Every structure is written in structure tokens, then in C-alpha cells.
Amino acid sequence: MSEKWYWAVESTDGTVRIGLTEKTQEELGEVTFVDLPKIGTILAEGDALTSIEATKAVLDFDTPFAGTIVAVNTAALATPATLNKTSQADNWLVDLKK
Prior knowledge:
A 5-stranded antiparallel β-sheet has the order 1-2-8-7-4. A 3-stranded antiparallel β-sheet has the order 3-5-6, with no helix packed on it. 12% of the residues lie in helices and 43% in strands. The termini are far apart. The chain is mainly beta. It has 2 helices and 8 strands, in the order E-E-H-E-E-E-E-E-H-E. The longest helix is centred in the N-terminal third of the chain and has 7 residues, at 22-28.
């Protein structure tokens, strides 16, 4: 897995949206399952963020930033293949407040 598996976009309020890069999507193949933390979960940098099962791999990802989970991509929980889309509006995992 590439070292930078995620993209991150920070808002002016310190909220960071984290999602899968296209390179990560290619390496994983079609995502079949995703486990996301609950809203309100407090994470330190390096804590487990998500577990993703796909056709090519099953991987656990650590959070790149410390903060509190303020939103999760419920569409990805219901339909994990949503994470294979190239649009950042679709393939995000969580919003984390630094």
C-alpha cells in the first residue's frame, strides 16, 4: 500500500475530510466492506481509523491526524463500492475535527 493512501481537505473551521486516493483505490480493487468509527470517537494520530475489505486486499488504515470524528460517509457504509468513485464528494471516509 502506498504511504499516502488518503487525500485530506481541511476547512477553515479545522474540520478535515479524509478519503481514498485513486492510487489506493487501484491497489484495493472494488471495495466490498468498510468499517468506520462512530461520530464522537476521539482519535490520536496513528490510531485505527478504518478497516476496508476489497477484491485485492483487506487493510486497516490509521488516522493521519488527531481529532474527533464529526461525520462518517453513511453512503459508503450502505454501499461500500461508493469508495471506488473518483469524486471526492463520494469517496470520503470521515470528517475529523482537529
